[in-house]
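Justification of computing resources. Each target in the renewal requires a structure prediction run like the one illustrated here; the chain below, 263 residues long, is used simply to show the kind of job we budget for.
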Amino acid sequence: SFLPAMNHSPWEGVTIADFVMPFFLFIVGVALALAYKRVPDKLDATRKATLRALKLFCVGLVLQGGFFHGVRSLTFGVDITQIRLMGILQRIAIAYLVTALCQIWLKGDDDVDSGLDLIKRYRYQLLAGLLITITYMVLLYGTYVPDWEYRISGPGSTEKTFTVKCGVRGDSGPGCNAVGMIDRKILGIQHLYGRPVYARSQQCSIDSPQNGPLPPDAPSWCQAPFDPEGLLSSVMAIVTCLIGLQYGHIIVHFQVKCLLSIW
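Resulting structure tokens:
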């Protein structure tokens, strides 16, 4: 992007573009509170929510896992051996499904006349959000990340192997964080996003925050695949959606006086 603020931060820091996904997930949560305000049949609602999430996940697989065969070709293909398994729509599908199930199954029958009553009615949803957050923090800072390797194609049919030295826990840098390690182990490095955002960082680009040639002393992880919508990072996407769900509850239970006074 010619405007750095409209592009994602290379790693540390935040830009306007970094707010788009969290705000969207928040609104998804708000919408779920309105859509599942009344659930006469929990099993049927669960079935519909699951099917909707699966459809969204599959659409994401095709859109972000496929590729056009050429600049002037309209043919579209998917390479199963290297298809990107996670992506924006896949993350939304996961957050949507978990949040929808929480709204369908984890709410009480208490009458809501105050803020405390609201907390009591949805206490299990709040507990679920807390447990998910704790799980994320434990995995992020407690998982041991060993040394690892990756290969990139060189000129012709040659391949070059890079070794990333880690052997740490709790690292938040691009090369040795638990987020990437979990994705590499479960999804496979060949199924991750091949143009990582940290390729625009000062360590990896002489034109940072834009893409550019590698500096002479660039770290070994600069060209390694990394998925910004990976498995562990999608765990906190669920929490963002749950926060939106709680805000939606406020709209549902306290809408009459507030909305009438506004209109």
